[in-house]
Write a structure and sequence with these properties.
Layout (H helix, E strand, L loop, with lengths): L2 H7 L20 H5 L8 H8 L5 E5 L5 H14 L8 E5 L2 H17 L10 E4 H12 L9 E3 L1 H14 L9 H13 L4 H7 L3 H19 L2 E3 H14 L1 H10 L2 E4 L7 H11 L4 E6 L14 H4 L1 H4 L4 E5 L7 H11 L20 E8 H18 L7 E5 L5 H10 L4 E3 L9 H14 L4 H10 L5 H14 L3 H7 L1 H6 L2 H19 L6 H11 L1 H7 L3 H23 L4 H11 L13 E5 H4 L4 E6 L18 H12 L2 E15 L2 E4 L14 E4 L23 H17 L15 E4 L3 E9 L6 E6 L3 E6 H4 L2 E3 L1
Parallel strand pairs: 1-7, 1-8, 2-3, 2-6, 4-5, 6-7, 9-14, 9-16, 10-12, 10-13, 11-12, 13-14
Antiparallel strand pairs: 14-15, 17-18, 17-21, 18-19, 19-20
Helix pairs in contact: 3-4, 4-5, 6-11, 7-10, 9-10, 11-13, 16-30, 17-18, 19-20, 19-25, 19-27, 20-21, 21-22, 26-27, 27-28
The protein binds a DNA duplex through helix 6, helix 11, helix 21 and helix 29.
DNA sequence: CCATTCGATGTTTTT
DNA sequence: CATCGAATGG
């Protein structure tokens, strides 16, 4: 049964290829073949995993088992090479990737009875790693209590700066200014250096703003994202003993997604590892999609120049996709000039051609894709979580959400509004922020704004008093008497209430954090106010506040000594809280950027219009090669099928625009492409290729289990949408007609499965789950 | 000081 | 079109 699939994992092909590439071949030696950490790897993967001393670069094509190499390597270092776990630093691009890698490493270690060792390995993003080190050693020019400013904080801060400089925020847009400042920081230009190279009148203004912004951050004891990297860099450069300490500790530095590192990240990694240190980087120049954010392709293209002793391994065998998908992706990417030649290969089946569907309008596009998804789920064999819709810009997601919701198809938009950036979450955290950093004026402004009867006037007085006395804003708030005297009775009362709360919070221990949050909510009535509202949006906010309480409880359990500081760091750095856990049985919607590193059975790339996929902007010329790489990333996420859709008329922000299919269409080899009109998008004529190609070659047992799991999941999905397993008593649901309610009871099984729901508007009703079209609310 | 209303304004991608 | 921000009246 598993035979033919399993054969593909280790194909018996001749091994007449040069070392350093991963053409399939027999195991080098019997010893490796017997090691469960190495047995199922190709020679190239094995070489990467077992590389011991000195720098190494792994250029890993999509679906070539890169994550598997990284995790195996960490396990191998610990279990076979005798490296102490805490000497290993693994850096990923996102927190989500870090968490996933940590989990996978742990599983490998647990399998050999070394589960405890997993704790020691530091798996982190550059930003979290830097924040952690800066907390320990103290960043130059700040204290260890510094606050991390996210994009919103930066904007608010910049607005204050603009007001001080008497610049018009409409003319000098904060977003644009911050982009300039960030760009400068990525190029390692501080305000002075920027001013020196400023050309022209506008740059002079930017320079002034930059300088003032830096002063404000220093005054508030705050660091923005870029500063985390720059301060870490400064620490490593200026403090030899810190550098040596860290170098001595982290004997192995592994960096994932190396093609997307920027200059400061590059320097940090290299300073940590030292010239001939054990720097192990994995990346793929063809998947570099963050140039706009300062990523520097030279970091990966010139790795060998920087590290003459470096060994290179290339992983070019793809385990993921059908031949058709791979050929399409290759055909596309070959049009890039700034690129090293490479050829991917696979043993997988040819599969079915890619579909291009030209829709009449964007509405039709959403409808067709949703119909197709509904049909696929009904057909079985493909669980919802294996379907994904990708788009170039977040703005496109809405229509697809609506259509999926209308059909009761469980779906999730990945990373749209990051959890910790939601207003209600930031509101509640503001009190803790003020506690953590008494100079954080941004937090003070929030707290004041949330306290009844207090507003801009009081804030201004406090800030002024703080400035004249040289006190922190928190101290001014708590102790200054002059401010009190300036205020009228209602404000005075409000202010003393606030004082009491803050004093109480200060008297409480910094950990665990949950009681602190509870006290804030209790004393401010924040949560109650949200709960009491009848606006569903407000209720959703209340749910988010409760989710925050959960996150706090989890943090307390995981890291008992962390306390509110740990929560705040998590909040600032962890923007995409993406729990791909048990409730993950849903179709994924995301931007092409967010898709990096993921894989799905079937992928829909929507909005494949010319001015949208090579995205055209008014002001700046677009980087065609980067756009092409973005599409390349999207195509190579798919295991079995890709559908591209474009619309002849697209309504974007009010007005209609006619559109052409993407110019990239012409770059896809026509023999793997099937063009259809809208009538052609019929599932009956387009089954998924069967059997599916092997998922990136898991061991046989896991593979069989995975198949069983996939089938079980597929069976659980009803045309009506909700997964049977999802609904339990107490869950909140929405019905198209009856509105919102709470599940009281679930009974029966199969098609007879019923659910009793108490609806807010019409009372209790019993529904047949299969037909109820219930939408689960979070 | 606060709530509401109106107007203007702008959309890439994210740590 | 939707959200955000400023202006206005209570």
């Amino acid at each position: 049964m598993a035979g033919p699939l399993f054969d593909r994992v280790l194909p018996p092909e001749p091994a007449a290829t040069a070392p350093g590439t991963d053409s399939p071949g027999p195991p080098r030696d019997a010893e490796a073949a017997a090691d469960p950490l190495l047995a199922d790897l190709t020679p190239a993967q094995r070489e990467a995993v077992t590389h011991l001393d000195g720098p190494m670069i792994v250029v890993a094509g999509p679906g070539s088992g890169k994550t598997r190499v990284l995790t195996r390597r960490v396990a191998w270092l610990v279990l076979r090479a005798g490296v102490e776990p805490w000497r290993i630093l693994a850096i990923t691009f996102t927190n989500k990737a870090a968490e996933e890698m940590r989990a996978r490493i742990e599983r490998l270690l647990v399998a050999e009875g070394a589960g405890g060792a997993a704790e020691g390995v530091l798996v982190s993003t550059f930003h979290s790693f830097c924040a952690r080190m800066l907390r320990r050693y103290g960043p130059p020019g700040r204290t260890s209590d510094f606050t991390i400013y996210d994009t919103d904080d930066q904007k608010a801060c910049l607005k204050r700066v603009l007001a001080e400089l008497q610049l018009d925020a409409a003319q000098w847009r904060p977003g644009a200014l911050l982009a300039r400042i960030s760009e400068a920081k990525n190029r390692l230009l501080d305000a002075e250096a920027f001013a020196e190279q400023a050309a022209g009148w506008r740059d002079e203004v930017v320079a002034r703003v930059y300088r003032a912004y830096e002063q404000a951050l220093a005054q508030f004891n705050a660091l923005d994202f870029d500063d985390l990297l720059l301060k870490m860099l400064a620490l490593l450069e200026r403090e030899p003993q810190v550098r040596e300490e860290l170098r001595a500790r982290f004997r192995h530095v592994l960096v994932d997604e190396y093609q997307d590192t920027n200059r400061p990240q590059y320097l940090i990694a290299n300073l940590l590892a030292g010239a001939d240190g054990n720097l192990f980087v994995v990346g793929d120049p063809d998947q570099a999609i963050y140039k706009w954010r300062g990523a520097d392709l030279r970091n990966i293209l010139e790795f060998e120049r920087d590290h003459p002793s470096a060994r290179e391994v290339r992983l070019e065998r793809n385990y993921r996709s059908t031949r058709a998908i791979l050929r399409a992706a290759e055909g596309l990417i070959e049009h890039n000039r700034e690129r090293r030649a490479r050829r991917l290969f696979t043993d997988n089946d040819e599969g079915v051609p890619l579909r291009l569907v030209r829709c009449l309008s964007d509405e039709e596009e959403a409808r067709l894709v949703a119909d197709e998804i509904a049909a696929r789920l009904e057909q079985g064999g493909c669980p919802a979580r294996e379907l994904a819709v990708f788009y170039r810009a977040n703005a496109l997601s809405r229509r697809f959400e609506e259509e999926l919701r209308r059909r009761g198809i469980p779906h999730r938009v990945v990373g749209a509004v990051p959890f910790y950036q939601r207003r209600e979450v930031k509101d509640v955290l503001a009190w803790l922020r003020l506690l953590a950093n008494p100079d954080d004026q941004q937090a003070l402004a929030r707290v004041i704004g949330l306290t009844g009867n207090l507003g801009a006037g009081t804030l201004g007085r406090l800030a002024e008093r703080a400035a004249t006395r040289g006190w922190s804003v928190l101290r001014t708030l708590l102790e200054d008497t002059a401010v009190m005297e300036q205020l009228r009775a209602p404000q005075r009362r409000a202010l003393s209430g606030l004082r009491e709360l803050l004093a109480e919070l200060r008297a409480m221990p910094p950990a665990p954090v949950l009681p602190l949050l509870q006290r804030v909510l209790e004393r401010t009535g924040y949560l109650e106010a949200l709960r009491g509202a009848d606006d569903p949006q407000e209720l959703a906010r209340a749910d988010n506040v409760e989710a925050l309480l959960n996150a706090a409880a989890e943090l307390d359990a995981r890291e008992p000594a962390g306390g509110y500081r740990a929560l705040l760091d998590q909040a600032a750095l962890w923007s995409a809280v993406e729990e791909d856990g048990a409730d993950g049985e849903a179709v994924r919607l995301m931007t092409l950027h967010a898709a990096k590193g993921l894989e799905f059975d079937e992928v829909f790339i929507v909005g494949f219009d010319d001015r949208l996929l090579p995205l055209e902007r008014e002001d700046s010329a677009c980087d065609l090669e980067e756009e092409r790489r973005l599409l390349y990333v999207g195509l190579t996420r798919a295991r079995r099928r890709v559908t591209l859709t474009s619309a002849m008329v697209r309504r974007t922000w009010g007005r209609e625009r006619t559109a052409q299919p993407s110019r990239f269409l012409a770059e896809l080899p026509s023999e793997v492409l099937e063009r259809t009109g809208t009538a052609g998008l019929r599932l009956a004529a387009a089954p998924l290729p069967q059997p599916p190609p092997s998922r990136s070659a898991p061991p046989p047992a896991a593979f069989a289990a995975r198949l069983g799991e996939l089938r079980a999941r597929a069976a659980a999905v009803r045309p009506g949408g909700s997964t049977a397993a999802e609904l339990v008593a107490g869950a909140r649901v929405r019905h198209a007609v009856f509105g919102e309610g709470e599940v009281l009871e679930v009974s029966g099984s199969g098609v007879g499965r019923r659910v009793r729901v108490r609806f807010e508007r019409i009372g209790t009703k019993t529904l047949v789950l299969q037909y109820a079209n219930l939408e689960r609310l979070t």
